[in-house]
Amino acid sequence: MNVSTPAKFIDARPRAEKRAAISAEVRLRTTLSFYKYVKINDPVAFRLALLTKLTALGCLGRIYVAPEGINAQMNVPTENFVALDAWLQAVPELIGVPYKIAVAEKDFSSFYKLTIKVKGKIVADGLDDASFDVTNTGAYLTAADINDYIDDPDAVVVDMRNAYESEIGHFAGAILPDVDTFREELAVTPELLKIHKNQKVALYCTGGIRCEKASAWLKHKGFTDVRHLKGGIIDYAHQVKEQGLPNKFLGSNFVFDERLGERVGADIISHCHLCQREKSDCHYHCQNQICHVLYLGCDGCVAKYHGYCSRFCALSDKAPVAIKKIYARYYNRYFRPAQFRKAQLRPTPVV
């Protein structure tokens, strides 16, 4: 749904200038995420109220509002966190909404602008919500619970994230569907797990929002004992640290902001997509804007190819503008829909 933004909220500065301004900030920022499935009668008015308050507090991030609820990934100047919390908890639809605070900040901002959009759904799942009871979700699991499931030979732990997320980090022994979208995952998971239909099934994702819907979907599909990790991997990392629990998450947690990941486990379990030899859990976007593919790169390859994913992208980016426009039309027509396919994330080594 297209909703116009009042002119007073539009920052017309070039993107590079906005990024530079945020990067030059000396105040600390706290990155957080939250979601809530709740009826919002007027998403457009709700969006405007959010936009007004969050702009005043200096917040940055990406927020989706829909008739079914809200999904937010954002940051706030740390000095304004208390004020943000007080305001959010006073909004009738958001009373009691829990936050997932980032496991680790980096030396740059997790977001560089504030975007709030009205959507049909807060997560693109491809499901007809009228066809099943979306409120019949599985019970929550704590960090201690999920650890028990991992150690239980009669239980099944399932990663409800995309393959490029689970590649850099996942729970030990988890089932990792080879998918690229949540919509695809919901389509294939019931068949993938059919032999486990009467077992204990534990779902997990980044912050919990995808598992909320997925647990109800699997119960609708006949799974008898489906539960999901409350707060997702982000909250798991905090619980493990605070309670002194064994950490059974391997590697890093992919996050959908400028950081692209936060370390949870001590080890790096993934490899550079370019040389396919060195270990790396650092994602980069190809510097060629026509490609812009997400890839894992080791320090050596990133330096060697100057941020490009291949020699071809490095060379084609130097072509005349007219040639690049023709190539861009061809690329967007025939290749762009598959740019985040798993095969594309592991290109042929460019040695």
Tell me the layout of helices and strands.
Blueprint: H1 15-23, E1 29-37, H2 43-56, E2 60-66, E3 69-77, H3 81-90, E4 100-101, E5 114-118, E6 139-141, H4 143-151, E7 155-159, H5 163-166, E8 169-171, H6 182-192, E9 200-204, H7 209-220, E10 226-229, H8 232-243, E11 249-253, E12 262-263, E13 283-285, E14 294-296, H9 299-304, H10 311-316, H11 321-334, H12 342-345
Helix pairs in contact: 6-7
How does this structure look, described?
There is one protein chain. Helices cover 32% and strands 19% of the residues. The chain has 351 residues and is an alpha/beta fold. The protein is built from 12 helices and 14 strands. Helix 6 packs parallel to helix 7. The protein has 3 domains: 112 residues, Alpha-Beta Plaits; 115 residues, Rhodanese-like domain (Oxidized Rhodanese, domain 1), CATH 3.40.250; 63 residues, no CATH class. It starts with 14 loop residues before the first helix and ends in a 6-residue tail after the last helix. Strands 4-1-3-2-5 form a 5-stranded mixed beta sheet, with helices on one face.
